[in-house]
Structure formats: C-alpha cells, structure tokens
C-alpha cells in the first residue's frame, strides 16, 4: 500500500518537474535545435549560391554561344526559361532536401536513390523559403536604415562591412525565428490532437 501511495505521489511530482523544465526555456526565444538548423541552412545557402554562380556562368556562356546576344531570343526561349526555373527553384530545394535527409532522415526504399523522401522534400522547400525570406528581411532592414543604399549611385559600389554584418545577423535571426515559429505551430497542433484525460 505504501509503495502504491509513493508511486502516485511521485507521478505528479515528475509531471511538475517536466512542466518546470519546459517553462524554464523562454517560449519567445528559438530553441537550440532551431539555431542548429539555421547554421546548417546558412552553410547550405552559401554552398547553393556558390554552385549557382558557377552553373550560371557556364550556362550563360553556352546560351550566348548557341543563341547569341539577342535578349528577345533568350527571354522567349522555352528551354532557357525551364532551365532558369530549375536553377532558381528545383535545384536548391533538391540540394537542401538531400542535406536534410543525410542528417536527420532516412531514404524511402520505394523511391529512386536520387529522390529524397517526402519529408525531406518538404524541409527543402521550407528551407529555401526561409533563405529567400531572410534575405528579403535583411534587405528591408538595410533599406530602413539607409534608404539610398540601393540607389543608382550605390549600384557600382560594394556593401560595407557594417552592412554585410547587418545582413548576416538579420538573416540568422530571421531564419531561427521562422524555424521556431513553425515548431510552435506544430506543437500546438499536436497538443490539440491529444485526447483529453478524464
């Protein structure tokens, strides 16, 4: 009897301890897992930009060699448009999906070896959206601090070290908070789906 009473008393104590552990970390600040994903996304984003610049230069030389320097022919050429969409959308998503699958997931045996699983594809789409949104947020912050930063007089000049630092910090914090907000939303849906204890 005493052991049963002790077990019943220990259960609420353990539940209170879990609740205090959850409340110990502030809800408004991204969890360490979100910062880890942000760092990996930053390294992946730099790799994607580097690869896109190389592929873009090679593709540009090949296009100019085949079609010439006519802008109308380039803009109205369907294969060139499809190739640009692939480089701008599909290639980054596939690369991010493969990186996510390599670190956190397993390949689906029902899919081809070059095809990431569906969850990894979703993470790739989300990661690319986070990257682009973070860049836009950094540009908006730069523009709010200096409205003339993107004027014609600045087009031929590079960004200063301070502007690059502002862009980098805003990119990291925006990405971390986007991952954090998604985690909070997913946790809230999980909480709603839990059956109520009577």
Q: What shape does the CA trace take?
A: flat
The count of helical stretches stands at 6
The fraction of residues assigned to DSSP E strands is under 5%
Q: Could you tell me how far the N terminus lies from the C terminus, measured between alpha carbons in angstroms?
A: 24 Å
Computed structural class: mainly alpha
Secondary-structure element sequence?
HHHHHH
Low-confidence stretches: 5-12, 14-21
Residue share in helix:
over 70%
Largest sheet: none
Count every beta strand, where a strand is a DSSP E run of 2 or more residues. Answer: 0
Provide an overview of this structure.
- With 198 residues, this protein is mostly helical.
- The protein has one domain.
- Helices cover 76% and strands 0% of the residues.
- It has 6 helices and no strands.
- It has helices spanning 2-24, 32-66, 71-75, 78-104, 118-145, 161-193.
- Helix 2 runs antiparallel to helix 4, helix 4 packs across helix 5 and helix 5 packs across helix 6.
- The longest helix has 35 residues, at 32-66.
- The chain starts with a helix and ends in a 5-residue tail after the last helix.
- Residues 5-12 and 14-21 have low confidence and may be disordered.
- Keywords: Membrane, Transmembrane, Transmembrane helix.
- The chain crosses the membrane at residues 39-68, 80-104, 125-144, 164-181.
